[in-house]
Amino acid sequence: MFSYKSRYCVAAAMAAMAALTGHVEARDIDLQSIGYFQFSPLPPSLVSQTDTLLLSDSPEYVGPVGGTLSAGTINGNGRIYFYHVNEMDLPHKIAIVLENQTAYPTSVHVMRQLKSVATPDYFAAGRDLSRKDLEQPLNESPDARPLYTLSIPPQGRQLIFSDLENTPVNRDALFTGIVDIKTEGPIFARVMMLPMGMDPVDASHWVKNLPIDEIQLRGTYTGAKRNMEVTTPFDTSLGGAFVEIGNDREDTFINGVDEMQNKAFVRDRGNYGVSYTLKIPTKGNEPFRLYFNPLGGPYSGSFTVKTLHQQGARRGQTDTRTYHIGGADGISALGEGTILDSRLLGNYNAGDLLTLNFMPAGASNLPIRFLLIPESLANPQKHQTIAVNVPKDVKDILGNPTQGGTQIPVGPVGGKDGDKGSVDTKKSTVESPAKRAETIAHEETKKLSDKAAADVKKEAQLKKAKDEKEALARKKAEEARLAAEKAEMLRKAAEAKHAEIERKMAEKAEAERKAEEARKAEAARKAEMARIEAARKAEADRLEAARKAEEARLAAEAKRLEEERRIEAARIEAARKAEEERKAAEAKARFEAQRAAEKAALEAKKAEEERLAAEARARLEAQRKAEQEALEARRAEEARKAAEAKAALEAQRAAEQAALEAKRQEDARRAAEAKAALEAQQIEAARKAEEARRAEEARKAEAARIAAEARKAEQERLAAERAEAERQAAEARRLAEERYKAQLEAERKAEAARQQALAQAEIERKAKERAEAIQRVRDQQESARRRAELARQQLEAERKAAQASKRTPSFSELDDIHGDTSNVTIPNAVSIDELTKPRPTASQNTRRREQRQPQLSPNQQYVQINPVANEPQQDQMPYTPQNEQQNDEENPPKLYPLD
Q: Taking the CB of residue 537, how many other CB atoms lie within 10 A of it?
């Protein structure tokens, strides 16, 4: 949908880019000429954010197969926002299925359903949904009527937004939409892309969850509705200002969890699916304009501006108007390749309270700005004129005839000098019209001349300021381009670092998961061994108990025979006394029968209450102690077997005692039975009637009690579930914050390590440069030493040559002609002077001897001798590489011959 990574960093460079690429401007005002880059910021503050948002935008491009795109829990007011492109060959559909995962039925009220057109034009789809969101606003009043209501049974699933079943999404088409719902309990919602004709409810049981893409725009968030307000009113007397939205600074992105990834931390980068309400108060004395200005890239969507007039004749009245960017206005989107595009959103008066409603449009880019520009800054050339009634026969100061009703410009509208050119026509009765008109014309001519001179000067100043602004803008554009390149490099480095951190975290999580699995396997193995050992001990205990029970049975049998003999003797004695006790027994039997009946009824009622209470406690205990069920079952089984053996023994003993007692009382009963039969029947009938009445009352009371306990238990369970859900959400938020802090700390440490590495590299580089400089100094010293040695050798050779020339005899000494020798004339003879006389050559016949270059032999060429090598080195500056470069430039080396 949107890439926020570097758009804001390169925003300032887009203007220069547009000039180079031939961008077609879509501007309602020239922002650069009115000082756009000097506008004051008006930071908005967050007032509130409510309701749950289930965002479904990752994977944005669905293919090669469909499946579950996003899923999450909504409890209360919530919104489902989907945005997907079909990359499969066949048409598919979007389906939304709600699941009730609780044990009680839940109602869901569908408040609003919106869908865009399915089209390959991404801007058209996002623009269409943005417009429908404002044209069909959500009714947030308490008595709002839903479109329809669903009742979902426990563990049941139902489809909502059935219109999507008949909306095919073709290949490469974008489809986006919104569903606003209100639930009476937690509901798990799924957004799926399925082939046409497939049953969504049935498919929701088996379709696969599709992995999230790199943008990571899906999950469950808090903040589907965001209210913001500018705390500092816009003052029209202070120049232009702007309110910036979607920059993740003043207007931060909302955080959430992805329930399809074990509640992993996610961010809605762009706050897509969030409905904004932005309030901007104003003050001052001048009207102003409101402009929309995209910063992050192309934008195409709708905005509603509600105006509350707080001054003037319309005080307390409101106006509402909706503005559409893109589509009908002839452009696909505003802000392509530039940050200077703008669109007018109306004219307003100072003091108006502006309330903007919008939702970030799909396929568009953030951040965006709302510009507030005073009218004098937006239109500085606007003037007003007044009509001066001058008689036709009056001439102006130049002697030219005037026209009646001449229009004379008098200055800007609403300006401080707006009344300087006004004419008081009331004095025309005192002064003559001709004189008055001449005076007015003279004054106006002077004003016009002064104004023309001021306009020329102002135009020159404006031109100069414009040139300076253009130069500054070019400089800023270049700086922005360099900053953008640097930011892109830093972003790539950060992405690589983030990927490395994620890889290490994934490896660590995998290692922890394997360790946890190994620990669980070891615990399961130990539990199984403990269970086998417990079973063995239980079997041994059972055999021991059986042996003891058999011994007890034999002892009991012997005791029973002895008891029978004693009872027989006692029976004979009892038969004698039975007649005496019969009368007392009859009265006592009646009393005992009645008391036993009442006692039996009470015990039955108590037993029933205990049984129902035990069942309720057992159900609650079973839910709370599900993990201990196996162990308790084994213990119960062992206790049951032991109890059965004990009960069997006790039952046998009780049966024998009961048989003896029954045999003893049989004779007395038979004697009293005939007489008490009639009375017993009457008592029994009365008892049964009373018992039936009491049983009915007990049953009703028990039913009411059970229902009350069930309601109370359900309320406690729901409260416990809500508390557990809140605890888990808080834990997820805490874990997400800890992970985020850990990530930030890791990035900080990595940045510190990188800075330390850069510092170390810089130290090493400087050390290397110093070593190279030292080596160059040594090489130069060695070269100077060689040159000095060569110069010394040359001087020594010249000295030896000079000495040799001094010792050679002169021509006069070698001349063998003496004074006493007669002169001999030799024809055509050449003297020594003539032979040694220098003669000009072809290359030197224009210069004197001292100006000629010495002729070098082949082995004397191209040897560099420093001419200052043998000069004194006093007051010499310390050597540095910069000195070397300067010396080489100012005194290039010369060529000297070798000896």
A: 11
Question: Which of 27, 39, 36, 28 has the alpha carbon at shortest distance from 473?
Answer: 36
For residue 14, pLDDT beyond 70: no
Query: Which H or E run contains 263?
Result: none
Tokens of 773: 């400089």
Q: Are 372 and 280 in contact (CB under 8 A)?
A: yes
Q: How distant is the alpha carbon of residue 525 from its chain centre?
A: 45
Positive/negative CA dihedral, 457, 378, 349, 250? negative
Pairing of strands 234-235, 275-283: parallel
For tokens 């029209």, name the residue. 236
Distances (CA, A) of 720 to 381, 494, 572, 582, 802: 70, 43, 69, 64, 120
Helix 433-624 to helix 629-807 angle (10° resolution) is: 130
In angstroms, the first-to-last Cα distance of the chain is 82
The full DSSP string for 485-511 is HHHHHHHHHHHHHHHHHHHHHHHHHHH
- Both tokens of 835, joined, read 């032979």
Encoded tokens for 672:
């009293």
Residue (of 50, 112, 333, 92) closest to 195 by Cα position: 92
3-class SS at 367? coil
pLDDT tops 90 at residue 388: no
pLDDT tens-digit map of 527-548: 888 888 888 888 888 888 888 8
Residue type, 895: L
Please report the beta strands in 101-217, taking only residues with DSSP state E, as ranges in sequence order.
Answer: 106-115, 148-152, 157-160, 174-183, 187-195
**CA gap 281, 308 in Å, rounded:** 10
The label of the residue with tokens 């609650």 reads 620
SS3 880: coil
Distance CA 366, CA 246 (A): 6
Q: Which two tokens stand for residue 751?
A: 């940045």
* pLDDT at 624 (0 to 100): 78
Confidence of residue 306 (pLDDT cuts 50, 70, 90): very high
Distance CA 802, CA 401 (A): 110
Give residue 22's pLDDT: 36
Residue 239: which of 38, 462, 379, 417 has the closest Cα? 38
The pLDDT-based confidence of 809 (bands split at 50, 70, 90) is low
Q: How many percent of the chain have pLDDT more than 90?
A: 36
Residue 61 contacts by C-beta under 8 Å, 6 or more apart in sequence? 84, 85, 87, 213
Give the contacts of 404 (CB within 8 A, at least 6 positions apart): 389, 390, 391, 392
**Residue 499 structure tokens:** 């990927």
The per-residue pLDDT for range 86-122, each reduced to its tens digit, is 999 999 999 999 999 999 999 999 999 999 999 999 9
Predicted structure pTM score = 0.46
